Automatic annotation (TrEMBL):
<feature type="transmembrane region" description="Helical">
    <location>
        <begin position="128"/>
        <end position="147"/>
    </location>
</feature>
<keyword id="KW-0812">Transmembrane</keyword>
<feature type="transmembrane region" description="Helical">
    <location>
        <begin position="74"/>
        <end position="94"/>
    </location>
</feature>
<keyword id="KW-0472">Membrane</keyword>
<feature type="transmembrane region" description="Helical">
    <location>
        <begin position="32"/>
        <end position="53"/>
    </location>
</feature>
<keyword id="KW-1133">Transmembrane helix</keyword>
<protein>
    <submittedName>
        <fullName>Uncharacterized protein</fullName>
    </submittedName>
</protein>
Amino acid sequence: MTKKVSKDDLIAVERYKFILEKIKYLDSLHQIHFAVIYKVLTALISFIIIVIFSGIEEKIKPATVEFSVQAAGMILIFTCLFFFAMSCAILSSWRDYRIEEVDFLSTIDTKVERKLPSSDISWRWNEIQFIALLITLCLLGVIIFMYPKIITNLF
């Protein structure tokens, strides 16, 4: 004999699927953002190297080399600030969905037990480490923007 499933049970299952889907989506966004930052860094480093070697070969003026390095620093700053804001929003949303998941599981009769995210171990979260990387890169961008001679005098 099969147990009749109520509409409330079906809605609860769909709600739980929705919550898990959103958590997975937010995790995938984090991975996409990391890949974009990696590509931006690769492009900026390549740009700076090309500009510096063009300056060494006197194909462009030293003022243009300095300006180009400053522009690369500014691009790095804006990119990191954008992804910092996005990462904070993603982390906040992820935490909200996780709290909703824990609350939901506590209301139904199940052996699945999830705990609320703990700030004690937040330093182990990939998102927090990514935010720390963004802050470091942003500071590097400020240094490059303020003192482009540090980079241009390397060659």
